[in-house]
Amino acid sequence: MSTVTSPIGVDLLAWEAAQRLWGVRLQEARMAPGAGDEHGAPAWFTFPPVVTVDPVMVAQLGGADEMESVFAHELGHHVLAPSTRLDALKIRHQMARALQAAGAPTLRDEDLALMSNLWTDLLVNARVAVLQRRRDGVGEPGIVRLSRELYRASRSSPSPLWWVYLRTYELLWNLPAGTLCDPEPPEPARRPPKQKQELPWTRIAAEHRAAEKALRQARRAAERVSDELAEATVTRPALDADVLASLVRTFAGDAVAGALRFGVVAAPYLIDPRTDGAASLPGGTCAADDAAATPSELGRVLSDRRLSGAVPSSAGAAAAPAAKGSATGQALGIAQTLELYADADPAAVIAAWYRAEATRWVRPFTQRSPRAVSADLPGPFESWETGDDLADLDWPATLQAGGVVVPGVTTLRRSYLPDDPPPVSSSIDLDLYIDSSGSMPQPQTGSPAVLAGTILALSVLRGGGRVRVTSFSGPGQVAGHEEYSRDPARTIADLAHFFAGGTTFPLDLLDERYAGRGTPDAAHRRHLVVLSDDGLTSLFGDGDPARADVAPRVRETLSTATLVVLDRQHRVAEPALRAGYDVMYIERMDDAPAVCARLAEVLGG
Question: Of 105, 260, 379, 506, which one has the fewest beta carbons inside 10 Å?
């Protein structure tokens, strides 16, 4: 392990000059001789903001005379792109969307890290060159001189994407073609044909030879088609470099939005079957933050609308609007999101995904009543990021912190600390039961029923009400909390509990919960909602005749009772009518979110 020291002498002067260039003050850089070999790069940045440099590797690569530019580059990652850990997660998410749209079978960490680093490097180096030209006037900026040295060994790399990356710098800095890379892009390498072992005909029974011959002919035809597809031109290096240069200029102030379009250009190079993806590119990445996303970060990342819009067909094309009734643009599905955040808590990922998907449907509903005092205590200020709710921006605190307002850098928001709420009666109590039998979609692969339940629950919670969720399946298969809650994360976690058994409504639990309850009044309403696909006749005593009177008795203690069911034969219609339960039928489970959004409006009056 290398010894970490503070910069001294000329390195300290270079560090101070880099900070003046950006107009910021950061804690002192760390000099770690020899650490670059392990990391794969001569310098890197981490969060909370720290810059680390391996001066030995920088010297080996020829950049010892340009230490200011080395420091300025790493500082740029903290000031401009990604600037915060939250934006770093968002950029990585955008790259995952681009890879998925390009047809990547899996989301590889090395591809995501590479794409994120290339994009932010382009933004940072382009800005550093502008700042140095503005300060120094005529002459070649230090970042350009540094790039000449750092990229000298890789100028003839066989990777087409690396050629596009270097050519983009030539266009951004108005350098002649051939300055940083070869004048013409490299041809993609041809992979050697796969050698297949086939049994000799003498070892194949005579009665099977005709079938074997047809099988071998079909296999060879499929291989020819596969080879032709692999040779098809899906990338245009020279044009792509022009596009990337334009993207850097256009999205210089919004790295998250521009990341998706950069990914649309870069992804085809990484999934090209003739290449080895990120492994085919020289060098490493200068981002060294690999901590798992926290539940709070997941919520803020997935709620950013820039991460759910449609993916453009090309970097310069406008994103097509999502079809009416479809999912929000081309956001990652729950399975892909779990894959992307594999190192995070799966329950937190599921909760954040369903909450983000439900947001567009949620309409807070409650009774008109005097506003209750917030139970939260004001906490310390935290950074307000681009993409956060504008209502959360604390303008007085932002302006007091400094005269220059830089979104995502100097903007602040007030955090709140949880406190015991005052004992006030809730305007609305929602008792939500969700069927988690084997015939229902699994939450981990995308469940419209869980999404529908989330829409109802968030509508109540945002209106100041309380929610209790019960997941049920076969006899004895019941999960959830007994008490009502105002915690969205716990509510969604209960909705996502999945048994995959039969379908038997827990009448004993329902009877116990509502025993002794009186008729609700106008100031305190109780709503019961059941989400199921079939088999809900058990709610009215089917299979348990001794408790056939439970549902009608409980109905007398409720303001409303609604069943949202996929029951094509309407078997539940007659017993529901007798017991006083409303029924909302759906033709397919995908209709449940829209139906529950309408139900939320009805319940809210």
Answer: 105
